[in-house]
Amino acid sequence: MNRLATSFLVLTGLLLTSMAMAKPSLKVGDKPPAIQVAHWVKGEPVKSFDKGKVYVVEFWATWCGPCRESIPHLTKLAKKYKDKVTFTGVSVYERPAGDLPTVNSFVKTMGDKMDYHVGADDSSGVMGKTWMEAAGQDGIPTAFVVGKDTTIAWIGHPMIGLEEVLDQVVADKFDAKAFAAKQEKDKEEQAKMQQLLSKAGQLLQSGKTKEGLAELNSVLAAHPELEKRVGPAKFHLLLQNDEAAAYPYASKLAEGPFKDNAAVLNDLAWSIVDDKAKLKAPKLDLALKIAQRAAAVSKSEDGMILDTLAFAYYRNGNVNKAIETQEMAVKLVDKMDGVPAEVKKEIADRLEMFKKKKGGA
Q1: Per the domain annotation, does 181 fall within a domain?
Q2: Cα 8 to Cα 265: distance, rounded to the nearest angstrom
Q3: What is the per-residue pLDDT for 13?
Q4: CB 305 within 8 A of CB 266
Q5: Complete DSSP assignment for 296-310
Q6: CATH number of the CATH domain containing 193
Q7: Which of 143, 174, 205 is the last residue of a domain?
Q8: Residues 254, 231: contact at Cβ < 8 Å?
Q9: Which residue range is the domain that position 215 belongs to?
Q10: Integer Cα distance of 211 and 199 in angstroms
Q11: What letters, b where the CB count within 10 A reaches 16 and e where it falls short, cover 299-329?
């Protein structure tokens, strides 16, 4: 199950990459590029940005899991800001490029869950180039907010901060200059981090895991503030290569920089308790402790986190508590937007497994 994007791939993409990024030519405060959508799949074509109106242009792809999760959220926002904000989703980077039949089929299947204007790039990738690449954005989903003055007010992940930004933009209270300054500072910090971690990254990429971890530990000792950025990724690397060292490190993260981060706590707990991980000596009591903390931080309102907690109870031998917790998880997950049907089924099946265990006990 995809609970949090912290894995060896994150190390590759976040910790290990130390290439110098070209300064983007498209920034907050600039006029947006033209909307050159090759094919309109749903809704009337959005051809221009009118003064006094607000627009969201979001880039996605049918194969992108996080994009699929963000679609119901965008539909909710489109309904919330009806007649105030125009939402457009543009399919880019399809595989193969410009695969319109797949996009058409996907949008049709989504139905009312994708209730806003939808367009698609063709194989020339004009929208991807003039918007995404020009803005230095290398990941989807990515959303651009165009404000009432017809300039770009905000660029970011549609699931992280978009609603708050739109509240302010619609009310003429959003400070685009302050956001642009913060974004620039964040990029500078990212570049500094990548520079510090470049040697560790090169060692790990070349297969020298022991040496890479040693270098990473040296960097973190000198720059402990980086642990919030790479700690979970380091934990996954340890779990794969030095399991015994992974558990005390997980405890350190859970009691320190991530003690109030339910998502990271959940990831740590699930990574330990997951029986499919084939760990040699999983610290199940530690997983339960971390899962309980994740549930407390999330106020037991997140079905995915309760699913982890239930499985931690189960693997620690407390079947009754596992059933009680999993029943809550099933109810909550059923109400969550963006959770694939197969994940909901997996969680429901796990409840049945717990009940069968109790019946056979």
Answers
A1: no
A2: 17
A3: 46
A4: yes
A5: HHTTT--HHHHHHHH
A6: 1.25.40.10
A7: 174
A8: no
A9: 186-360
A10: 10
A11: ebebbbbbbbbbbbbbbbeebebbbebbebb
Report whether pLDDT(337) > 80: no
Query: Strand 142-146 vs strand 152-156: parallel, antiparallel, or unpaired?
Result: antiparallel
Q: Could you identify the residue written with the tokens 């350190």?
A: 252
Residue appearing with tokens 């901060």 = 161
Confidence of residue 17 (pLDDT cuts 50, 70, 90): very low
What token pair was written down for 88?
A: 């457009």
- Read out DSSP for 31-79? PPPP---SEEEESS------TT-EEEEEEE-TT-HHHHHHHHHHHHHHH
Pairing type for strands 54-60 and 85-91 reads parallel
Q: Give the 3-state secondary structure of residue 336.
A: coil
Instruction: For the beta carbon of residue 197, count every other beta carbon within 10 angstroms.
Output: 26
* CA 251, chain centre distance (Å): 23
Interval 62-87: pLDDT, tens: 999 889 889 999 999 999 999 999 99
Q: Give tens-digit pLDDT for 300-327.
A: 999 999 999 999 999 999 999 999 999 9
